[in-house]
Each structure stands twice: as C-alpha cells, then as structure tokens.
Amino acid sequence: MDICDKAKLLEQQQRNIALARALQRPPQVQQSINDEAVCEDCFAPIPAARLAVLPRANRCIDCQSIKERHEQG
User: Fold this and answer.
1) Distance (Å, whole) CA 67 – CA 3
2) 3-state secondary structure string across the chain
3) Quick one: which of 5, 33, 64, 68 is 20 to 30 A from 57 by CA?
4) Do residues 62 and 42 make contact, with C-beta atoms less than 8 angstroms apart?
C-alpha cells in the first residue's frame, strides 16, 4: 500500500466518523447547526468571538482544549 492509498483510506475513515456523528445528533441540534455554528462534540453554540478569530472552528473552546490534551498525552 503506497502513501496515496493510505491517505485515501484515512480520508474515508474520517468521513465515516463525521457521518456517524452527524447521524447521532438529535433533530433540534441539526436545526441549530443549520442556523449557527455548533460544537461538533457537545453541540453547544460556538461563540461569535471564537469564530471571529477562527472562522472555521468546529469545536467550542472547552472541547478543543480537551481534544488537544487528549492528543498530547
């Protein structure tokens, strides 16, 4: 398996995880996602101040901090 195959496999795995998460969301959360930016982990609205600094943020500050601590250790 070459590097392109590995990248394609990783991309598909990440897509499957994102799809599974999206399908687990309650309908009211899905509606709020359509209306505003919502954290992908806790479904809380992402504050406008965070989006002003990082427009493509997909996690609130708390969930992003947890994710970064998990990745470090």
Assistant:
1) 26
2) CCHHHHHHHHHHHHHHHHHHHHHHCCHHHHHHHHHCCECCCCCCECCHHHHHHCCCCCCCHHHHHHHHHHHHC
3) 5
4) yes
17-30 exposure pattern, b = at least 16 Cβ within 10 A, e = fewer:
eeeeeeeeeeeebe
CA–CA dist 70, 73 (Å, integer): 6
- Give domain limits for the chain: 3-72
Global pTM value: 0.51
Backbone torsions φ then ψ of 44, nearest 5 degrees: -80, 150
**Spatial separation of the C-alpha atoms in residues 38 and 16, rounded to whole Å:** 19
